[in-house]
């Protein structure tokens, strides 16, 4: 007699074989057979009940960003499935593996205009690298195994639609998983391509290393490269935390979510070594005449963002290491010294505001408190908007801490879901979420999820009663500010109503006690901080260069943004 197994249980066993230990979703009638299998396998894989499927999908994407392992979320037929799409696009755009399981009506009800029936494949075609509807109960575990492999192979989203009746069937019991066979190797750089890069480095007078998330875990190689070739380092936002922020050669980040030293260096440089990144704003912020050496493991990205003089298909760590071995060292020179000084001035300027007791509060005192209570291996999940700008400038990460956000898709509302993912994946580490009031209000219901699963996450809300990032865009385009003001709320009390410990901060003196209590708390915390609605210094459009702007324009700019003791890079290079 042939041994059999329930098809849905066999599928869950495949998930377990790939090391998946939790899955996000909300039950629905079209997913009930899988829910029963999750119940049977509850000792091996945890079902995390969220209050909105979008939160589940965003959390799955954050799992993948923080751990490198595939994240998993599900939605039932119709609305449950469509709610997933935002989080899946976040995963697609930031190139991380996520599996989405979609419920479907029973196979004998499909194509009969049944209740909640939706032809799901076309809707998910663009977001996915794998998109299949299971056609037989026997193929269910196989299709899910194929989906996971494909998601890993292409660092993307795999979607599997499951007719609900298939999960109730008995199928032959045999192992459908290929997890043990999965391999991921290094793409080794070509020696001749590396050699071609050396004359460009030797000839450069103002070289710069730009890194992206492809350089994750390559801090020793980045440091060695920077010091061997006397190059300052700039990072993509998704690469924050790879290089310790205090490293003297590290200038920060480019574009609008950026730092002054980084943008100035990218405008002045004559050589960019571009490693492990696909920075979409290169045309706006990179010196177009600079020579360009690009390193990536994806050949389709080579030459995409800038005219490329040397293209190297290869692993970031290996490529950096081998270039150091091949190339002659460059002396510590005026270029590197000026950039180091520019960074020192920048940090001093940022820190000059951290003890000010303005009301409403400035953000700098808040980040001073975050730094004070943050553990050495804390994880920071920041939502998008002005909060991201403040976070990349004012969080001083040490190389052991982790950071993530919604990078390319830049979707509001990723903070709370990302915090849930971080605490589930790293239960012994301290987790912070940082959100603006607009973003927090989109997903604040899932503070309940943090409470339900006893996740002691510190959720910080920066309340300025505005979509501040968009308000600045309207300001730049000289249009009327419209649709950007928000009705205020007491999010500390909201947190309390949802079961968290809540604080609402309106005065500087309230910061220290609230953050001290948050560090000690064993349950989720919501700290709502009423900040002033002022624009962060627009380093993408500085009005400080006397060769370009009048003295009156510069003085007005300095007054508006409280700029002091902040000479531009051109001045430092002359001194």
The helix content, as a percent range, equals 25-40%
Number of strands: 20
Strand order of the largest sheet: 11-10-9-12-13-14
CATH class of the largest domain, please?
A: Alpha Beta
CATH architecture of the largest domain: 3-Layer(aba) Sandwich
CATH level-four homologous superfamily name of the largest domain: Thiamin diphosphate (ThDP)-binding fold, Pyr/PP domains
Cα end-to-end separation: 87 Å
Mean pLDDT: 96
Structural class: alpha/beta
SS field, number of helical segments:
23
Poorly predicted runs of 5 or more residues: none
CATH topology call of the largest domain? Rossmann fold
Biggest sheet layout? 6 strands, parallel
Q: How many domain units?
A: 3
Strand-residue proportion = 15-25%
Anisotropy-based shape: globular
Rg calculated over all Cα atoms: 25 Å
């Amino acid at each position: 007699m042939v041994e059999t197994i329930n098809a849905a249980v066999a599928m869950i066993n495949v998930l377990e074989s790939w090391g998946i230990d939790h899955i996000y979703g909300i039950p629905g009638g079209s997913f009930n057979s899988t829910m029963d299998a999750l119940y049977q396998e509850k000792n091996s894989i945890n079902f995390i009940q969220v209050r909105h499927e979008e939160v589940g999908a965003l959390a799955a994407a954050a799992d993948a960003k923080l751990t490198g392992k595939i994240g998993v979320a599900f939605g039932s037929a119709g609305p449950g499935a469509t709610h997933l799409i935002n989080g899946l696009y976040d995963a697609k755009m930031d190139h991380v593996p996520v599996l989405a399981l979609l419920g479907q009506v029973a196979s004998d009800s499909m194509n009969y205009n049944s209740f909640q029936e939706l032809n799901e494949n076309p809707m998910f075609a663009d977001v996915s690298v794998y998109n299949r509807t299971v056609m037989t109960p026997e193929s269910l575990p196989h299709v899910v195994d194929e989906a996971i492999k494909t998601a890993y192979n292409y660092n993307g989203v795999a979607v599997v639609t499951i007719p609900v009746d298939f999960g109730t069937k008995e199928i032959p019991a045999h192992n459908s998983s290929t997890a043990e066979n999965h391999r991921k190797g290094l793409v080794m750089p070509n020696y001749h391509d590396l050699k071609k890069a050396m004359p460009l480095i030797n000839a450069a007078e103002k070289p710069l290393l730009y890194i992206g998330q492809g350089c994750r875990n390559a801090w020793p190689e980045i440091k060695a490269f920077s010091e061997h070739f006397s190059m300052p380092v700039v990072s993509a936002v998704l690469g924050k935390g790879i290089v310790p922020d205090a490293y003297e050669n590290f200038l920060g980040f480019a574009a609008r979510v950026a730092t002054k030293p980084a943008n100035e260096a990218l405008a002045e440089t004559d050589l960019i070594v571009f490693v492990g990144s696909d920075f979409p704003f290169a045309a706006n912020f990179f010196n177009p005449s600079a020579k360009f050496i690009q390193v990536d493991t994806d050949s389709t990205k080579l030459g995409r963002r800038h005219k490329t003089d040397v293209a190297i298909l290869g692993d970031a760590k290996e490529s950096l290491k081998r270039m150091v071995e091949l190339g002659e060292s460059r002396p510590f020179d005026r270029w590197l010294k000026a950039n180091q000084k520019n960074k020192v001035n920048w940090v001093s300027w940022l820190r000059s505001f951290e003890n000010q007791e303005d009301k409403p509060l400035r953000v700098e005192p808040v980040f001073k408190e975050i730094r004070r209570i943050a553990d050495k291996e804390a994880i920071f999940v920041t939502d998008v908007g002005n909060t991201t700008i403040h976070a990349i400038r004012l969080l001083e990460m040490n190389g052991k801490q982790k950071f993530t956000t919604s990078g390319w898709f830049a979707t509001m509302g990723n903070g709370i879901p990302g915090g849930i993912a971080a605490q589930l994946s790293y239960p012994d580490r301290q987790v912070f979420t940082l959100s603006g009031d607009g973003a927090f209000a989109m997903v604040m219901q899932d503070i309940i999820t943090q409470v339900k699963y006893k996740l002691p996450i510190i959720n910080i809300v920066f309340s300025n009663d505005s979509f501040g990032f968009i308000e600045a865009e309207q300001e730049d385009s000289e249009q009327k500010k419209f649709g950007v003001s928000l009705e205020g709320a007491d999010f500390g009390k909201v947190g309390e109503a949802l079961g968290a410990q809540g604080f609402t901060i309106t005065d500087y003196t309230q910061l220290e006690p609230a953050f001290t209590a948050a560090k000690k708390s064993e349950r989720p915390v919501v700290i709502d901080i009423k900040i002033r609605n002022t624009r962060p210094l627009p380093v993408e459009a500085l009005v400080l260069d006397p060769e370009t702007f009048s003295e009156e324009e510069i003085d007005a700019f300095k007054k508006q943004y409280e700029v002091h003791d902040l000479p531009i890079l051109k001045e430092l290079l002359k001194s």
